[in-house]
Amino acid sequence: FAAMDTADTSKMIGQLAKQKAIPVLINLRNCITENIENSIRGRQNDNEIASGPLGFIYLFDGIDELTEQLLDYVLSYIQELSHKKNTVKIIFSCRSGSFNKLKVKSNFQADELTICRLDLTHIKTFFQARRNSGKSEKLQNFINAQSPILVAADDILLISLLFDTVEELHENSTIIDLLDKK
Fold first, then answer.
1. Contact, 159 vs 121, CB < 8 A?
2. Who contacts 29 (Cβ-Cβ below 8 Å, separation ≥6)?
């Protein structure tokens, strides 16, 4: 939505103008310590866009991380936000097994997209993109040993954790060992 995959500022501006909306990422983990209304208002004020001509596309990241009580409060606020004329779209991210996902679905009619499980090809790409030869060599040792951890690391959080801790693990490490490093 922000055309951030390009380094061309004019393309980014063109994308925002085309959709007539600015994407706003709200990390819901922050709502544990900060009021969601203040968080959104702060994002808009930081970027001096609160009263501009463009609307907003809100991405609420981490619905699964909220307590039930906080979820009710957040969903109530998002319901109000959805009726504002400058709200173009609302997007939620949530892990598939979360109870909170069911609550969102009962409060909002929405399309659901599922991110596929990641595999060894994705892990290799992730490591290569970070250009750390030591960690890439260690990954290759895991591949050669057909380490079970490579099958278990099937989402971006686990792959990122694997990258961060690969030098502390051994080829026979399990997903439990990986999570212990967290």
1. no
2. 62, 65
Q: What is the pLDDT along the chain (182 residues), one digit of tens a residue?
A: 777 677 778 888 888 888 888 888 888 877 665 666 666 666 555 455 556 678 888 999 888 888 888 888 889 989 999 999 889 999 998 877 778 888 888 888 878 887 788 899 999 999 999 899 999 999 999 999 999 989 888 888 889 999 999 999 988 888 888 888 77
Whether pTM > 0.90 for this model: the answer is no
95: helix, strand or coil: coil
Contacts of 110 by beta carbon, 8 Å cutoff, 6+ apart: 90, 92, 104
Dist. CA 178–CA 52, nearest whole Å: 46
